[in-house]
Inverse folding.
């Protein structure tokens, strides 16, 4: 009943092509974060003796709101998350804006002695950006602490004079990201599945693999679900500069596209 | 007590949110056909008492429903509030609606339905009476005899609600109503033949009659998984066919 594969008049997408396009979606967001990074460092350097306050951080607001508007609904929010002690007038602080008809600042509980305390320093996207000193991609995960959305979080660490100031980040709405990737994967013949570092599915062109599912060993899973006789072996293509992999298998014949 | 908890504690009971909740509940019932087209609602004081809300709240709710075109009010003698069932969406409209729902949202709905319906079937096996079984069988007959999609969808929807209600859990029944009102119309879009659905429903009733709760649970879970998979397959297929190549 359902057509298996792209319409004949549409150009097919090869795995190389698909991985580059998937990477581009994410790089565009990272590029926005890099711009915020530059803006923020400029502000931080111009303060006397690097004494940062909430007022200084607030000056990044217009740039953050611009970023929300630049990505056409892909982002749930974006902002700066300050390291404890980075500001002179607040022990912890975040300047995070949510994409709403009128952008809305995220309000979370930052009092470490209360029950609803949001300890962002324990979050993977903060901790790993700090530890690695490089950009980090976390998720997809259900963000039950702050936004209640299913997101992928991108972060960049911020350093000034050798000190760690915090991270700049953005939440990709997993559903929006998935739909963009599916538009690419839908033009690939056979099964194509994008998985993250833990081999959790971010997007796929088949209902055999739905987003959020773990596929540790795709060929074994395919056998288990009874689709083994139809799917050939999965080929893995890394997504450039991201901790993600595209798994790809053509059906039936040997016309598998190799990278 | 933390600040958010205090906020919940002191939420005014007659808040605008309450009228919306009443409107949602009545609106869901209209959309599911539990309240039939042209049916006259009870007089306002009676209805308010039944729903356990103030008259002002009920009036706000009815105003919201009028705006949605789900009820109409006639003044004067013989006047009152009447149900106006929404026109059935065309297949094309439904397809367009489906392409606008993110795949992850469909998957999440499948997860949620997988928590409600199988549990309801399990409890219905323990708690359902012969009356329930009879009603379920007669709804299966309606489903099998239905010739057009709207009638199939209605019989199928009522079957599921009867299963949920047989569990004796108001919360499970409400959750099933809410989920059906959200997605019910779309579930039948990839189908067209009621035979496999009727067969699965019949096996479920047989399992309930035999008191085999595990089997009932399994059949219900299978049903939810398979129809959500069909829906996601259709969604992917529509994406393949419609999505223009990006520049």
């Amino acid at each position: 009943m359902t057509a298996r594969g792209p319409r004949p008049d549409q150009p097919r997408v090869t795995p190389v092509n698909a991985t580059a396009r998937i990477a581009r979606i994410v790089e565009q967001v990272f590029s926005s974060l890099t711009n915020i990074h530059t803006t923020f460092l400029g502000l931080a350097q111009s303060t006397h003796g690097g004494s940062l306050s909430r007022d200084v951080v607030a000056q990044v607001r217009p740039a953050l709101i611009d970023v929300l508007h630049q990505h056409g609904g892909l982002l749930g929010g974006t902002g700066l998350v300050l390291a404890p002690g980075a500001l002179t007038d607040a022990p912890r602080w975040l300047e995070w804006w949510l994409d709403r008809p009128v952008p809305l600042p995220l309000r979370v509980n930052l009092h470490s002695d209360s029950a609803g305390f949001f300890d962002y320093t324990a979050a993977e996207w903060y901790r790993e950006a700090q530890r690695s000193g490089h950009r980090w991609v976390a998720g997809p995960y259900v963000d039950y602490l702050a936004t209640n959305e299913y997101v992928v979080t991108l972060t960049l660490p911020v350093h000034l004079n050798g000190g760690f100031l915090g991270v700049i980040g953005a939440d990709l709405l997993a559903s929006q990201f998935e739909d963009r990737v599916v538009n690419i994967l839908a033009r690939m013949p056979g099964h194509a599945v994008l998985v993250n570092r833990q081999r959790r599915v971010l997007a796929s062109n088949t209902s055999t693999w739905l987003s959020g599912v773990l596929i540790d060993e795709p060929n074994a899973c395919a056998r288990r679900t009874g689709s083994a006789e139809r799917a050939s072996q999965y080929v893995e293509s890394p997504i450039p500069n991201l901790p993600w992999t595209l798994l790809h298998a053509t059906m039936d014949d040997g016309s598998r596209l190799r990278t | 007590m933390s600040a958010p908890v205090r906020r919940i504690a002191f939420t005014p009971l007659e808040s605008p949110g309450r009228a919306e909740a009443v409107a949602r509940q009545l609106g869901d019932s209209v959309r599911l056909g539990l309240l039939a087209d042209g049916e006259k609602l009870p007089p306002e004081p009676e209805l308010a008492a039944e729903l356990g809300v103030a008259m002002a709240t009920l009036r706000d709710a009815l105003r919201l429903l009028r705006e949605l075109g789900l009820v109409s009010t006639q003044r004067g003698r013989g006047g009152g509030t009447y149900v106006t069932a929404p026109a059935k969406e065309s297949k094309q409209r439904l397809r367009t609606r489906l392409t606008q729902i993110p795949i992850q949202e469909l998957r999440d709905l499948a997860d949620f339905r997988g928590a409600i319906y199988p549990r309801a079937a399990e409890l219905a096996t323990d708690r359902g009476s012969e009356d329930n079984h009879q009603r379920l069988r007669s709804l299966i007959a309606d489903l099998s005899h239905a010739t057009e999609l709207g009638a199939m969808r209605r019989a199928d929807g009522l079957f599921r609600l009867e299963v949920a209600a047989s569990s004796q859990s108001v919360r499970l029944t409400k959750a099933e109503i809410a989920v059906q009102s959200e997605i019910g119309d779309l579930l039948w879009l990839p189908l067209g033949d009621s035979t496999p659905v009727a067969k699965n429903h019949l096996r479920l009733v047989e399992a309930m009659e035999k008191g085999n709760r595990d089997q009932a649970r399994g059949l219900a879970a299978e049903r939810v998984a398979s129809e959500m998979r069909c829906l996601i397959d259709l969604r992917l297929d529509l994406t393949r066919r419609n999505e223009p190549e990006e520049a």
Remarks:
- The longest strand of chain B covers residues 71-74.
- The radius of gyration of chain B is 20 Å.
- The beta strands of chain B are 71-74, 80-83.
- Chain B touches chain A through 22 residues (CB under 8 Å).
